[in-house]
């Protein structure tokens, strides 16, 4: 994953983002979803929100959660 800086500008009365060549989307992608979380915006191809997360085996490092401290299993009565 890399971070690339883009420019925001007004196009008529709408905001637009000029995406640099190093971060451009493939030509076949014509529509995107914009996930809004506070001031953060995540742009992803439409209907592909989770695909890249599950398909990309390099999403996390090899040592991800290696030292995770898991609490002891709790004894609970059945329902």
Automatic annotation (TrEMBL):
Signal peptide: none annotated. SUPFAM superfamilies: AbrB/MazE/MraZ-like (SSF89447). It comes from the Bacteria. This is Antitoxin VapB. It comes from Nicoletella semolina.
